[in-house]
Amino acid sequence: MAFRSSLSLPYFLGIVLLVMKKHTGVALITSHNSLITIQPLTQLKSFAEAKEDDFRINTVLPQTSPPLTPHSFSGQVESSVIDKFGTEETHRVIDSWRLVDEEYEHRQFVGDENDDVTTSYNYQYAHSFVPGLRCQNFWDVSKVQWSKKLTKGYKTIRNEFFSVMGDMNNLQKEGNNIWAGALTKEANSYGDGWKTLVLMNRGIWDEVNCNVFPKTAKCVKDSGIPATEVFFASMKPHSSIKMHSDFTNFVLTSHLAVDIPESGNNKCRLAVGDDTRQWTNGSMMLFDTSIMHNAVNESDGIRYILMFRLWHPDLTLIERAALQHIYDCLELPELLSTDQDERIKAEERINKLRSFPKLKLTGFGGGANSLKSGKKKKKRKR
């Protein structure tokens, strides 16, 4: 049995595991008119049903529980992480996993002292929370090497995208789950106008779609971005995405603006907390979607971006590997098997799934020899 998050949506680990977790009460400290009160945690069923005051809360990080029950699924995952990576360098990941098991939802004001806490959107809200990671609305990508490489490949990505999109019948025939909408109730805040086309989900490349967009897939791989998800996202004209969180603080989100209607005229905007920026063609953004955020397309055209989820830079390489192992266990629970042969087969399968797919030289949008460089070969002298 494979546990899958919604395609091209964040890793809703807390939501994936709700059926496995025990129900515990968590005390929340809230502030109103300088008075401190304590109230029980009320979990939100979805942001479609949420009120703004539901996220304007500061939680108290509880002490994590002792080792999880070894015979439960979550306990087996924890034991597997410890056996594979040890406890010393993965203690934050183990704490995060235990917080999920306790149904802890981290909610915290992350603005500055000049913000009005009763109206600000500078709040972090994360079901899946690794303690000790920096939290800021937007990150500077100007000096990030993978960002520079992706920006350099913008024209290649854009040209291939429109070449493929120019034959929608073939795209629907050859592609996998083309322009899918939100698949869970928790993702209702994205609205009907937001669709995705996936190249990678939870660290696993989509071989079919990578061969539909081979140049784009190669640009992403060659950039070195520490991505866990890669997908194109479209947003209909005159549509909006409601204020929401993506619930996970250990992945950041990045956008490469592929085609922005009226680029530079402030028609297509993204707000993270109280900070609003516009998409412009060929530009990149890096931001934290565990902070409340929304988006709007006020233009008459469809907005297209290439979107990435990537490991938070404060995670160590071992912590990234441990988190990826958790995702692999959710994808392929046979990795936890006590049968050595079954476990070895599962490890071989997950390694194959996570490897970069072999790309055909003739992606149907890229033309013959689509992965070859555009440089002309010099003619040999006779």
Describe this structure in words.
- The chain is α+β, with helices and mostly antiparallel strands and 382 residues long.
- The protein has helices at 13-16, 73-85, 91-101, 145-152, 154-165, 168-174, 207-212, 214-223, 317-331, 340-354, and strands at 27-32, 35-40, 58-59, 106-109, 123-128, 194-201, 204-205, 227-235, 239-244, 247-248, 251-259, 268-272, 275-278, 284-287, 293-297, 303-311.
- It folds into two domains: 13-132, no CATH class; 145-313, B-lactam Antibiotic, Isopenicillin N Synthase, Chain (Jelly Rolls, Sandwich), CATH 2.60.120.
- A hairpin with a 2-residue loop joins strand 1 and strand 2.
- Helix 2 runs antiparallel to helix 3.
- The longest helix has 15 residues, at 317-331.
- The termini are far apart.
- The relative contact order is 0.17.
Helical segment count: 10
CATH topology of the largest domain: Jelly Rolls
Classified in CATH, the superfamily of the largest domain is B-lactam Antibiotic, Isopenicillin N Synthase, Chain
Approximately what portion of the residues adopt beta-strand conformation?
A: 15-25%
The backbone outline, from C-alpha atoms, is globular
Structural class: alpha+beta
Please tell me how large the radius of gyration is. 22 Å
| CATH architectural group of the largest domain | Sandwich
Query: Could you name the CATH class of the largest domain?
Result: Mainly Beta
